[in-house]
Design a protein that fits this description.
Largest sheet: 3 strands, mixed
CATH class: Alpha Beta
Strand order of the largest sheet: 1-2-3
CATH architecture: Roll
Helix content: 40-55%
Number of helices: 5
Structural class: alpha+beta
CATH superfamily: CBS-domain
Amino acid sequence: MTVKHILERKGRDVVTMQPTATLAEAAQLLAQKRIGAVVLLDGDGKVNGILSERDIVRLIGTKGISALEEPVSKVMTLKVVTCPENTTVIEAMEIMTERRFRHLPVIEEGKLVGLVSIGDIVAERIARAEQEAEDIRNYIATS
């Protein structure tokens, strides 16, 4: 099973912003969309960074509420780890676990084509395990 399968099922829409937005705007967008991260794009539509709710909380924790006036560009993760669609679910899970982040942008031919979260990965693994258990029950019942 690959990341492409997850994107086909959940959709490929990715919430994005420009790095010039403020952290307050980013926090409002995250709350409004009920998501945990936003991808930052440059003027050409290429991934420039990623900002998670954790990034915002850490900054507020160290600088206080005035940090929300800062531009996202000062806080976003610049070295974004991405994957192609043919990445297996296991590989994506390993990347996210090893690097300790919860969102993985999916890139094909230099373009952002989706975003998978650790929740998407876990849901896929559970669905797969349930299907395998059902297949085994059916096999046993028909033997």
